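Quick check before the chapter quiz. The format below is the same one you will see on the exam, so make sure you can read both the input and the output lines.
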Amino acid sequence: MQILVLIGTLIALAGLAGLIWCILLAMKARQGATSDEEIRTRLQRVVVLNMGALGVSALGLMLVVSGILLA
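Here is the expected output.
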C-alpha cells in the first residue's frame, strides 16, 4: 500500500501547487484590472480553478489516508 500513499502524496502536492497558482492569479487580477467588472470576471475564473485544485488536493489526501489504513 506504499504505492497508494506515494501516488496520493503526488496528487495532493499537485493540488497544493494549483492552490498556490490560484493565489498568484488572484493577486495578478487585482493588480492588473482597470474596472470592477474586469476584476469580477477574472476572479470568477480563479474561483473555478481554485475549486478544481481543492478537489484534486482532497482526492490525494483521501488516497494517502486509504493507503495508511490499508497498510
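If your answer matched, good. The chain has one domain: 2-70.
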